[in-house]
Amino acid sequence: MWLLLLTGLLWSVGGVFIKTNDANAFVISSIRGGVAAIVFFVALRGRPKMTWSRPQVLGALAYSGVLTCFVLSTTMTSAANAILLEYTAPIFVAILGWLILRERLRVYDIFAIVGVAIGMYLLMSSNLSGGHLTGNMVGVATGVCYAIFVICLRLQKEVSPYETVLLGNIFTFLIGLPFFFIAPPAPGSIPPVIFLGVFQIAIPYLLLTYSSKNAKAIDITLLTILEPLLNPVWVFLVTGENPGVRTFIGGTVLLVVVILKSLVTLKQPTEQEGALPTEPPPTEPPPTGTE
């Protein structure tokens, strides 16, 4: 339980470290992904089992999209909007599962989709100045990319998710590499990003995997929800960024819908969505928070 709380806490610091860093967003994403890739490579003892299957490569690209889009969104809109829009992922998982995997949409899925749509509208209409609309759209793209990542993990039967995540971090590093020459980072901006790669991406994922062996699925879902709750708080305390009333209302609606959907899903053990609740089976993704 404590490790799960620590996981959510470590995930939540991403916003404030990104907001207070002057480096280019692609550079931040690249360094963070590269460092995380090194940690995962070590965790796999230098022997990752790469299949290079279509789901593994596409899943890695989608995971890279999550990492990159989250950083871009955080730099372009409020930290609250960036993280909350990522938490629309379970709804996109339901939609893509219906379209691609032919999974049946249940009544509560329909209600959840409508509820998330309302929350997204409030979030995206809260501040449309200064490029915030573009940042909000990139935030939605984060959720879509995470949903594709989840679907790709499902398509890899009996395959560990670590290799997909490792490859995704490598892709993220390579995507941002040209920006080291286009917008070279100041030396002082690099150590905080290295910290993110180790303590906000790699270690939380490893903690989640370890703690989930003895934790209930509902504990994983609810305790790691600390991330979207605390992320905007740290940013507000450090930078004074106030996301506004609409963001608060929209975020509340979105999180309530996601939590309720997770609770209902957990009562369907044979047909779990897999976007939020469980980790023990190797094909299941972590809760949203790998950004």
Give a structural overview:
The protein starts with a helix and ends in a 25-residue tail after the last helix. With 291 residues, the chain is mainly alpha-helical. It has one domain (2-266). 51% of the residues are buried. It has 14 helices and no strands. Helix 3 packs antiparallel against helix 9, helix 5 runs antiparallel to helix 13 (226-239) and helix 6 (89-100) packs across helix 8 (132-154). Helix content is 70%, strand content 0%.
Structure summary:
With 291 residues, the chain is mostly helical. Helices cover 70% and strands 0% of the residues. It is globular, with a radius of gyration of 18 Å.
